[in-house]
């Protein structure tokens, strides 16, 4: 299938790119000339508690760019694939930003002691100060981020938000309200899109609005996607107010209860995610074409909501993961097909090798 047609199909559900825009993006990558023989990689999701690949596990990096690329590929594979479709300079910036996000996001999983977690977050807070004083320590992520900051004048406030939002959530086992989940999504997800847009050199209020809503939708979806995994660890993060509204206890979630009242909690949470996705769509016609590729992860959000709806919002349904795997393979295959035209460049490697 033609690349332009396939990319349009990938984004059709969220209308994140016109036919002409897809054709333009396809031509850019098709003409750059390298064919990759990638196979599907094992991926882990930052917010689903699968951050087993820490920076200590990535040995002998070629350089800071390679180090960050490996880190994001291992820990945030969906966003890693979408990031590879960005133009070269914006891609390097996005990889550095997402590597920084992995570093701070995984801290809570690396230690059960809140004090130790705060100390590690403080290290990154001080490192961020050093980066903006052109004194980054010889740590690969810090070095790559300093290059990105110098090249694109990235907002320190948004990078700082990635740290502060994680610190505010340390030790918390459950969100009190849906609004709290939205707020966390804005501070830990939306800011990533703001930074990627900065890397693209885009300053557009419509793009910012779309990014804000997409980040909140992504945060809500990640919360729901993580329910089965966290239940096995006897953790429940679904908003307390919605669970009380439907008479659902933490024990119901931990046991994988499939009663209608549990489905109603999932429905309310997923519905809010859908609303934010629709709001993001409402801005897309006014978003510059060069900025739309930054919003490509919306396709994964939309796919999950559709799959969840097909199981009648049963987050524990046995077929849900199978449906998602099929959708993922389809999306992944089309993305890798687009990458056939990419040259080998500094800091760029085959998606799965």
TrEMBL record:
<keyword id="KW-0809">Transit peptide</keyword>
<comment type="function">
    <text>Involved in the assembly of mitochondrial NADH:ubiquinone oxidoreductase complex (complex I) at early stages. May play a role in the biogenesis of complex I subunit MT-ND1.</text>
</comment>
<feature type="region of interest" description="Disordered">
    <location>
        <begin position="32"/>
        <end position="59"/>
    </location>
</feature>
<keyword id="KW-0999">Mitochondrion inner membrane</keyword>
<dbReference type="GO" id="GO:0016117">
    <property type="term" value="P:carotenoid biosynthetic process"/>
</dbReference>
<protein>
    <recommendedName>
        <fullName>NADH dehydrogenase (ubiquinone) complex I, assembly factor 6</fullName>
        <ecNumber>2.5.1.32</ecNumber>
    </recommendedName>
</protein>
<keyword id="KW-0472">Membrane</keyword>
<dbReference type="InterPro" id="IPR008949">
    <property type="entry name" value="Isoprenoid_synthase_dom_sf"/>
</dbReference>
<comment type="similarity">
    <text>Belongs to the NDUFAF6 family.</text>
</comment>
<feature type="compositionally biased region" description="Basic and acidic residues">
    <location>
        <begin position="32"/>
        <end position="56"/>
    </location>
</feature>
<keyword id="KW-0496">Mitochondrion</keyword>
<dbReference type="Pfam" id="PF00494">
    <property type="entry name" value="SQS_PSY"/>
</dbReference>
<keyword id="KW-0125">Carotenoid biosynthesis</keyword>
<dbReference type="InterPro" id="IPR002060">
    <property type="entry name" value="Squ/phyt_synthse"/>
</dbReference>
<dbReference type="GO" id="GO:0005743">
    <property type="term" value="C:mitochondrial inner membrane"/>
</dbReference>
